[in-house]
C-alpha cells in the first residue's frame, strides 16, 4: 500500500495553523523534520524543537487527488502557500520512521507509553504497549500528554470511561490499565476503530472491556469519566452532547485546544461543569471539570 506525502517548507510560526488545517483536511499524520534532512520525529515533551527552516510532512491516503489537495489548502490558508512538494511513498517507509523515533515515555507517577517493539523501562509500572498504526495519538503531542497526565492523576478504579475521538485508543486503554471497569470509544474513522482494537489486544485487554463504535452507533448512556482530545471547533459544537454523556458528579477532560481558544471552550462548558484551573503545555491547553447535578 502506498501513501501521498505532502512536504511543506515552513517557518515555525506556521506550524500550528497548518497542522490544524491539514488534520481537518483528512491527513492521517502530521510530522516535522529539519530542512537539513535530519530524521523525522515528533517533539519530545516540554520542548518545541522547530528549526528556522522546517519541513512539515502530511500523510494522506493514496486515493486523494493531489490537485484537489493543493486547491483545498489554497482556499483554507490565507496568503501565499509555502513551497510544497507531493510524492508517493511506500507504507514501510512511513512505518520505519515511527519505529526509529517513537521511544518509551512516562506520564505522571505510574503510566508509561511503550512502543510495542521496545522493552518497558520499568516493568512494575503501568505500561501501555502501543503501535500507533495510522491513527493519531502516541503521547508525543502535547494534547495527548496533557490527557495522559490527567488520567494518571484521576481516580479511575471501577469507573466507566468514554474516549470521544479515540484515534489509536491510547486514552481508553490507559484508563483501563489504570483501573477503569469499562471503556467506550468512538471515532469517525473506521481505521481508528481498527487501530484501537489492535492496541487493546496488544495490551491483553478483553474485547468486552473496550467497546468501540462509529459515532451514530455509540450508546448514549452517561459515563463516570469522559475524555475528548479532538479540536476546539468540534468541542464547542458538541458541548451539549458531551455533557449528556457524563453522569452528575462525573469528570470530563478536553484537549486539542490552543491557548487562544480557551475562552470559547470555557463558555461552552461552564454552565454544565465546575471547571478546574487550565493546564497548559507548549501553547496547548486542557480543560477539565466536574458535571453539575443542577446546571445553571
From TrEMBL:
Catalytic activity: L-lysyl-[protein] + 3 S-adenosyl-L-methionine = N(6),N(6),N(6)-trimethyl-L-lysyl-[protein] + 3 S-adenosyl-L-homocysteine + 3 H(+)
Record flagged with keyword Cytoplasm: yes
One Pfam family linked to the record: PrmA
Enzyme Commission numbers on file: 2.1.1.-
UniProt cross-references to CDD domains, sorted A to Z: AdoMet_MTases
Annotated residues for binding of S-adenosyl-L-methionine: 144, 165, 187, 229
Cellular compartment(s): Cytoplasm
Record keywords: Cytoplasm, Methyltransferase, Ribonucleoprotein, Ribosomal protein, S-adenosyl-L-methionine, Transferase
Listed GO MF terms: protein-lysine N-methyltransferase activity
Biological processes, Gene Ontology terms: methylation
Highest taxon, organism lineage: Bacteria
Enzyme kind, highest EC tier: transferase
GO cellular component assignments: cytosol; ribosome
Principal localisation: cytoplasm
Family according to the record: Belongs to the methyltransferase superfamily. PrmA family.
Biological function: Methylates ribosomal protein L11.
Protein name in the entry: Ribosomal protein L11 methyltransferase
Organism: Halopseudomonas xinjiangensis
Gene behind the chain: prmA
